[in-house]
Amino acid sequence: MLYQVTCKRCGGKFRISVDNILRTTSVCPHCGQKLAILIPKEQVAASAKESVAPQNVGIQGGNDRLSHEGEETIPTKTERKRGKGLVKVMLLLLFGALLVGGVFSFNKYRQQQEELVKIARQHHRDSVMKVREMLQAKALAAQKQEKLRAMAYTFLRSFYLNAVLSGADVTQYEPYLTEGCKQILYGINGNTSDLDKQTAWWGMFGTLSGLENADELSRNLRISHYEGDWYKVRLSQNGESEQRLVKLKQVGNRFLIDNVR
What is the DSSP string of 208-223? Predict the structure, then answer.
């Protein structure tokens, strides 16, 4: 029997011969589109009846009114190539987007790492500078302290050689004592006429054995730092040594003796 087919691509109509089959393929004679055709079951059954009853062989008028509801369009080779090309383009675009995103992310990460390295280096330089400044300040303070102590040693040696061991008039060296030290030396009534200042002076700065050998005392005079503003003075004569602790007070650029023990 004959079955009328309408092409979905160009709309052209043509007929094909079907005998007891539900599915077949054909090519549109108008545009060359390859078609997959589904034959309705009732049409196949009618075809079978016609084969059993030859007297009914023929084309029924109703066949012209049958639609091609079951027909499927089979893509041509050109369309398949076009579809594959689109897929490739999409894949290439996706790969390019991923590549650009990866490069951008890597550059941003590298910039962040470089910034972190710069910050770390700056902190290190700042720390080194702070440590260096601190060490320089300590060195300057130590130099200043050492210079101050050297001046104190010179002052005490000169004071002892001239004001204690020389036997000179002690009153001319009283300006080198603070008022507190004078009160310790002479007491509250320091201006009494019966006060022996020479004896009081030696009793405070000298030795218990007295001034027996001034030259030996001068040669063996040793002065060292004790603690804070206190300095140690060692006096030696006749094989015996005694020590005095002298506290100095700095007033401007000069030293004064503030206490002795």
Answer: TT-SS-HHHHHHT-EE
